[in-house]
What does this fold into?
Amino acid sequence: MESEQIDALVMIKHLERENRILRKKLERSEATCLELEQTNQKKEYLLRQIINELEDSQKEVQEKRQLEQTLIELKQTQSQLIHAEKMSSLGQLVAGVAHEINNPVNFIHGNLRYLEEYSQNLLNVVQLYQHHYPNAVAEIQAQADEIDLDFLQKDLLKILISMKLGTDRICKIVLSLRIFSRMDEAEFKPVDIHEGIDSTLLILQHRLKSKPEYSEIQVIRNYGNLPLVECYGGQLNQVFMNILVNAIDALDELNEKRTVQERKENSTQITISTSVIDLEWVQIAIVDNGSGIPKEIRQRIFDPFFTTKPVGKGTGMGMSISYQIVTEKHGGKLECISTLGEGTEFAIRIPVRHKIDRAS
It folds into this structure.
């Protein structure tokens, strides 16, 4: 009995010792858990701080990007406004010059008909005198020989015809200037696209003519049967002007690299084709047979301020503004298709009639 009690006491003491050990372990575990919890809280606090800083940083980056985009848009708008103001001033100047030239030229052109008629009448009288009085007195014969009367009679009418052709040419140029500027047609209205292209080509005629170094640039017109197109005629003419000037520059640059023999064997051409697509759209394709545009340049050709021309020869805004005029002002499309060594095509598509906000 006593041994059993002793065993029980030993067991109790052992259990008490185990219990104390477990309590200590538990206390240590609780302390460790508390430390871990405190550490986790610190880590969570730090993590939240980092997240907040990242969010702030992302906001700053986003705000910076928005500011940069706004700055780019402001620069574009400013350049477009400057260009629009310049084109408006140019249009007013062209219209003013055309008006000032038109009045005296019409006066000369109108009177040439009477001058031709009067000259013919006077020549008829002279011929009658010569017929009825073939043997003129010495003084009259001497004067006739001095002025070479026979040649004068033949050449006078030729001169009048040349003057009439010249004034006809000036009248056409003045009309083209008025059509190009379209100061009297600034509104959105039906326009003859071919008339606008032809007036632009006439203004650029001096760039197309032959030069001492190489022959003229041939212009091939493949005009389709287009209806009148609702558009801003003056602005669309600016697009034609920008594209045609670029094509001429590209052909001139190509000719500068060629030898005299290569220039003789390879003519330079600009082909302008127009057509109707699905009865609702018209397409104007302007194609040159220049050296083409590399892909890396072609991807940026409509970017504002991008130009491959030397300093002072290009602002980098012509094609960008042309793109805006076609896409935003007319709800159309402007595409550039080019193959190196073969040439470049600019395809303009605009709807025949518009439903866009014309106040924009």
